[in-house]
Amino acid sequence: MATATIGTETGAVIPSAHAGQTVAGLRSILLPLGLAFIVLAAWQLYVTIGNIPSVILPSPISIARYIVARYDILLMHAVPTTLESAAGFLLALVLGIVLAIIITYSRVAHEALYPNLIFFQLIPKIALAPLFIIWLGIGSQSRIAFSVFIAFFPVVIATTAGFLSVDKGMLRLCRSLTATEWQVFTSVRFPSALPHIFSGAKIAVTLAIIGVIIGEFITAQAGLGYLIIFATARADTEVSMAAIVVLCVCGLLLYGLVALAESIANRFYSSDSR
């Protein structure tokens, strides 16, 4: 009877836990969508009732109509912005992880690099953007380099914190088993630091997009940043807002790819540990 009772209780608990996860998942989707709908509805109502000119603030409906009607132009400008942002992010990710490894494994490098990285971060980077144009020209190289310049810092800080937060007892156990440094890194340090690495990567991917857009503001013949500046100079607010909407979609796409990579990495290391 005890076994039957336990089985019944377990059977009652599992569906309720599954239902709770389903409700939590729906809340995480419906709440942001609901808030966005309320904001857009209030925006549309304000523009309509207040009779606001489109040059000052176009309505969400007019912006959506423009996106549907001229999606080809918006897509043409979105492609270089997205590709350059992805390239800048990947370079920043590699550079940040490499610097974090150097800082973690070398005390001299930690004492020499870490304070300078903090000082480096305090530099007003927007003021340095024109210098990248002078150094690297008006092509995509300057925009990608500036994107890396902005985006690599959170990766370095987060990854270093992840490498240094590994359980000391686990490290002592690995050394007692005569594990090499490479084995310790691949089996202990790197898997333990993954949450920190992806936290820094999620910040870096947004900063990489900002870096590319700033570069396109200064000098570019294509890209969403160029389109925004061009439309703003002609007081075409509808086009500017449409470009910003597409830019947000591109940013969400890149952010989603980082989140997907995090999910795959977590599943790989969790299955590998079993």
Largest sheet: none
By CATH, the superfamily of the largest domain comes out as MetI-like
CATH architecture of the largest domain: Orthogonal Bundle
- The CATH class of the largest domain: Mainly Alpha
Task: Calculate Rg over CA atoms.
Answer: 24 Å
First CA to last CA: what distance? 34 Å
Structural class: mainly alpha
CATH topological fold name of the largest domain: MetI-like fold
The average pLDDT is: 86
> Count of helices?
10
SSE succession: HHHHHHHHHH
Uncertain ranges:
1-13
Number of strands: 0
Categorize the overall geometry: globular
Query: What number of domains?
Result: 2
Q: What percentage of residues falls in helices of 4 or more residues?
A: over 70%
Strand content: under 5%
InterPro entries: MetI-like, MetI-like_sf
Protein name: ABC transporter permease
Keywords: Cell membrane, Membrane, Transmembrane, Transmembrane helix, Transport
Subcellular location: Cell membrane
Walk me through what this model shows:
By secondary structure, the chain is mainly alpha-helical. Residues 1-13 have low confidence and may be disordered. The chain is built from ten helices and no strands. It has helices spanning 2-50, 60-69, 71-105, 107-121, 125-136, 140-164, 168-176, 181-218, 224-233, 237-273. It has two domains: 1-51; 60-273, Orthogonal Bundle (MetI-like fold), CATH 1.10.3720. 88% of the residues lie in helices and 0% in strands. It is found in: Cell membrane. It is a multi-pass membrane protein. The chain crosses the membrane at residues 29-49, 86-105, 117-138, 144-166, 203-229, 241-261. Residues 78-258 form the ABC transmembrane type-1 domain. Belongs to the binding-protein-dependent transport system permease family.
